[in-house]
Amino acid sequence: MIILEVIGCWLAAYMVCGAVHEGAHVVSGLCQGWKFMLLVVGPFKLYRDENDKVKFGIEKNILLWGGIGGTLPREEGGNYMQVFANTLIAGPTASVVFGLVAGVVMVFHFSIFSAMMCAVPLAMGVSCLLPGVKSGILFNDGTRYSRIAKGGRTAAEEEAVFRCVLKEMFRPADRFDEQSINVMTGAEDTAFRYMGHYYACCNAMKDGDEARKAQELAAMESLKGSVSKGVISMCAIEEQQ
Length: 241
Description:
This protein is of the alpha+beta class. The protein contains nine helices and six strands; from the N terminus they run H-E-E-E-E-H-H-E-E-H-H-H-H-H-H.
């Protein structure tokens, strides 16, 4: 029975701490004037639909069950990378603070659940701050924050991806920025290169350029073994046709 209690307490703590972590991303974005888009904690989600209504649902993509807290600018222009950096670091910061507070509570009221409420958010927060660690689609929150903060090539790569995401949101019929694509395809990290070739392939499809489309698909295929399933799922060319 103790095993079942441990598992049950871990699951409950994971859901609560996941909501704190991802919710912090969302609250940070909202406080800086961005618009709520998505909150996923385990199989549950809140999302903004095509009619601009926030709804509750079940997330069918298991790859996203690790959690997502998403906000986006209300308009495409503006200096958004500092805001994005702030939303990135908010999640692990909230997790660490929550875990430390729960640790104080655990000292005075020890139980399996209080121990989990301390350990889970601390593990969640620290793992999201470890440098160079991949988390789901791209690097973890702390690494992406550091990449933006130090500027140069890594910040340009993060901005290139974000520009393409915004273009999909605000101008879905337009071509992707070729300069951003070149930044991504020239990145050291294979996930960024894969995404760059994906966006280039989307441009080729919009242009009716079959030769370039074939070239970009071949480049994506050559990188497929080195990128996560999350990246491959997000960059599904078949769904774009």
